[in-house]
Structures are given as C-alpha cells and as structure tokens.
Amino acid sequence: MDETAETGEIRGTTQGTAPVPLSVLDLVTVGAGRTATDALGTSVQIARLAESRGFHRYWVAEHHSMPGVASSSPAVILAHLAAHTDRIRLGSGGVMLPNHAPLVIAEQFGTLEAMAPGRVDLGLGRAPGTDGATAAALRRSQRLNEGADDFPEQLAELTRFLDDDFPDGHPYARIHAVPGPVQSTSPGGVQSPHRPPIWLLGSSGFSARLAGVLGLPFAFAHHFSAQNTVPALDLYRESFRPSAVLDAPYALIGVSALATDDEREARRQVLAAALNMVRLRTGRPGLVPTPEEAEAYEFSPMEREFIDSWNANVIHGTADEVRTGLDDLQKRTGADELMITGNAHGGDVRLRSYELIADAYGLPKAHDTEV
C-alpha cells in the first residue's frame, strides 16, 4: 500500500472552528410509527448534509435483532449511500468480524471500494452486535467465545485477503478476494491503488492494545462505554508502534450528541431514546418511542437511575450547549476526531441536529465546498 495515500485517507481535516474533524455515526434508528424505509431515507439525507457541510466520514454500525435499529447490513447500506454522495468517506463502525467469514468481508468491501474509490473505511469490532442467541444464528455455532478469542487471527486473515498476499504454500494462497489486487496481475489488468483502511473498534482495552501494537487507527465507543474512554485511549497510545499505515496514533471516539432549537425539546428527545435503551437492556427491544410516550412512562427507581446515568453521557441541548460539551470532551480525551451519533424518534430531529452542530462550528455551507 502507498503509505502516504493510506495516512491521508485516515486523518481528517478540521473545518470551521471545530477542535478536530467531525464525523457521523448512523444507527439507522426506526421510530414508532415509522418504517425502515423512512429511516434509510433519513440516512441518505444526513449523509448528503454531512458531505455538504464538511463532516469527514459517515459510518454505519452493525446491529441485529433490534426493531429500532435497521443497520443489520452495513455493506448494503453503504452501497446505497455511495450512490447518493460524491466525496464523504463511507465506512463501517463497525462490521463485527466474528459474525462473518473474512473472505466475505474482503469481497464486500472490495466491491464498495470499486463503487466509491478512495473513500471507503473498514471498521471492525469483535463483539457480536446482538444477544448470544442471535449471534449463534448468525455464526451457525454455539461457540461464541471462540470468535472473540480468535479475533487477531481473523483480522490477520482478512488483511491478507484485502492485500492478496498469502504466502506460497498457505491453504488460501490461490484464493482471491474480487474485486481486489489480483485483478492487477491478470493480463491487461489495472487495479485501483486504494484499499479500504482497517480501523479497530472497541469499548474496552483489548482492541485498543491490538490497534496500538499493529499501528492501526482506533475508534472507541464512548457513547456507551464512557467510563472506559480515557483508559482505553491511554492504552492505545502507550501501545502504539509506527506502521506502514500510521506513523503516530490516531483515535476517534463515538459521541452521543443531539442539538435542538430549544433545550426542552432536546430533553424530550433524549428521554425517548433512553427509554428505548432501557427496554433493550431489559430484553424488550422495540422501536424508538415518541417523546410523548416517554414523558407518560412511569419509570421504576431502577430505571430512573439507569436513565440518569445514561443521559449523563449524552451531550444535548441547544447548538451552543452541544458545541461546548463536544469541546470539553475533546479536551478531556485528546481524541483526534469526534464521530457524532444523534439518536431521536424522528428523522427530521436527527437531520436538524447535524445542521445545528455544523452551524455552531461554522462548517462550510454547500456553496463553499468543492463540487
């Protein structure tokens, strides 16, 4: 791989007055009374807004068996978004590697790279992105711990498929991920100089250390594991070894943030999203409830305690309040990039939130960006 090109694909450019590059994490949330079609339509709107306003990348996360999250197939969604955008980086945040054969992922993301050359990221996680029974159904195996324990070996296999460089004598030496580098070795073959850069995702120390040792970029799930953010980033930086991909650490964090035109509406939307999380955590996953349903819901003391703890890590309020919260978080963690996920019942609220955040940081308007 071209080291300069690879590094350039990873490191974003700061826009406006933002402290670091800003990006988007999309869970393709489905609200009560809405359909998956509605949610995917919102994803296209947000991706196009993000591109026009200078957000660096747009990632989709893999989840399964959750009625309120329509992102079970990141590669399919990313292909759809690639057809509706021109410049913004698109990627997975992430694909759960133990759920899939490495060759399948290499083929999917090689195809995406062919669709959107030079703007595809491959973020990988080692969790199932669902409950144990669903993970077993996905993997057709009851040995769920095996997948997580074998993550480094699976990662090495996937990397070799992407680079088409299994050594002679390896059982897979004659197997090639297509689209991919093998096409350049065929008579008359020409292959793109790009291949999707690999990111490791995590919510604890395992992937942080592995990303550091391998010299890969790292993405931490601050939005649902806030207490581990600083220790994991410290571990990543301490473990980092320069590689052909990066000469210095590069870490982004996923941040739950929602901006609205008035503070009360932000509280209402955040409460609805938190009720959805309560139901998920207690085995009752469903669609994201409306703010009215959340306001009328009688929370138990234990549920109220969870809500308060969860929402303490959701940056919400007016655009100025969200900007201040994001600035403070970046200073506290030293993150190189902030990836914002805005969870709410309605797609219009999510779209407006990204618009308000862009305005708060003075990100370029559509007519200011290159066409």
Please give a structural write-up.
An 8-stranded parallel beta barrel has the order 1-2-3-4-5-6-7-9, surrounded by 8 helices. The model is unreliable at 1-7 (pLDDT under 50). The chain has 15 helices and 9 strands. With 371 residues, it is an alpha/beta fold. α4 (102-115) crosses α7 (151-163).
**How many strand segments?**
9
Mean pLDDT: 92
Helix-strand string: HEHEHEHEHHHHEHEHEHHHEHEH
Q: What characteristic shape results from the CA principal axes?
A: globular
Rg calculated over all Cα atoms: 20 Å
Kindly report how far apart the N and C termini lie. Answer: 28 Å
Largest beta sheet, briefly?
8 strands, parallel, barrel
* Poorly predicted spans: 1-7
* Spatial strand order of the main sheet: 1-2-3-4-5-6-7-9
Q: If helices are DSSP runs of H or I spanning 4 or more residues, what is the number of helices?
A: 15
Proportion of β residues?
Answer: 5-15%
Helix content: 40-55%
Q: Could you say which structural class the secondary elements and strand pairing correspond to?
A: alpha/beta
SSE order and pairing:
Layout (H helix, E strand, L loop, with lengths): L2 H8 L11 E5 L9 H18 L3 E4 L13 H9 L6 E8 L5 H14 L4 E6 L6 H8 L4 H6 L1 H13 L18 H4 L12 E5 L2 H10 L3 E3 L8 H11 L11 E9 L3 H19 L9 H6 L4 H11 L3 E3 L1 H15 L3 E5 L5 H14 L11
Helix pairs in contact: 2-15, 3-4, 4-7, 9-10, 11-13, 14-15
